[in-house]
């Protein structure tokens, strides 16, 4: 494969991982937002949501070794395959011993591939910005869900002035928690571990 094609694959690969990480961060932030609870978010709640999302990003850091798949393919697997079949590891020109007459690369067994600190650095360069964008997007999506709930309650009260209370699940993936409204008490977003209401 030509170098420009492998560079294009490298970039596409990284962009795909970045997009997946933003999506993961967004869902993590929405989940943490549901766990924190409350209706509307203050500075303290936002700080907890950011910390929780960053912790969730750290959990996938070991998986980030897949970020080096292009390096492993073009930097190691392909040169090794060429060398084994008696060709130059860099340009696939045939020959053995000494240096490649075409590009000057020594005919030596290419070093095996291993994840190292630069893999971790490359992973951090993708995961940290993706986590930050995901956190902002997740908190914005949760806030939009709360505004939608407030509009639903407004529309229901316009139809039925006697309405006393209304509740529904938060948007997925925080649907394990509820948004509530009650006449006289206003809006609330209780956290999931709140003691259950005693009926009666
Ligand atoms: Zn060569």
List keywords for this structure.
single chain, 200 residues, mainly alpha, three-stranded antiparallel β-sheet, 6% strand
Question: What is the distance, rounded to the nearest whole angstrom, between the alpha carbons of the first and last residues?
Answer: 72 Å
Going by helix content, strand content and strand pairing, the class is mainly alpha
Query: How is the largest sheet built, in terms of strand order?
Result: 1-2-3
**List of distinct ligands in this structure:** zinc ion
Question: Beta fraction of the residues?
Answer: 5-15%
Give unreliable regions as ranges: none
Secondary-structure element string: HHHHEEE
Summarize the structure in words.
By secondary structure, the chain is mainly α. The protein has one domain. It has a 3-stranded antiparallel beta sheet, covered by helices on one side. Strand 1 and strand 2 form a beta hairpin. Helix 1 crosses helix 4 and helix 2 packs across helix 4. The N and C termini lie far apart (72 Å). The mean pLDDT is 88. The site of zinc ion (ZN) has 8 residues, from loops.
């Amino acid at each position: 494969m030509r170098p420009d094609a492998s560079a294009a694959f490298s970039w596409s690969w990284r962009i795909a991982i970045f997009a997946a990480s933003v999506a993961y961060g967004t869902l993590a932030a929405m989940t943490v937002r549901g766990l924190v609870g409350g209706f509307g978010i203050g500075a303290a709640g936002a700080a907890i949501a950011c910390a929780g999302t960053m912790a969730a990003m750290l959990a996938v850091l070991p998986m980030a070794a897949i970020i080096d798949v292009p390096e492993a393919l073009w930097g190691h697997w392909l040169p090794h395959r060429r060398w084994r079949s008696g060709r130059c590891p860099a340009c696939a020109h045939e020959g053995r011993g000494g240096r490649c007459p075409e590009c000057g690369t020594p005919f030596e067994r290419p070093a095996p591939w291993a994840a190292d600190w630069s893999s971790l650095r490359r992973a951090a360069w993708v995961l940290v910005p993706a986590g930050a964008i995901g956190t902002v997007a997740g908190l914005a999506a949760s806030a939009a869900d709360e505004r939608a709930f407030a509009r639903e309650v407004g529309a229901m009260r316009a139809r039925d002035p006697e309405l006393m209370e209304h509740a529904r699940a938060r948007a997925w993936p925080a649907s394990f928690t509820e948004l509530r409204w009650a006449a006289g008490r206003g809006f609330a977003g209780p956290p999931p571990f709140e003691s259950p209401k005693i009926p009666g």
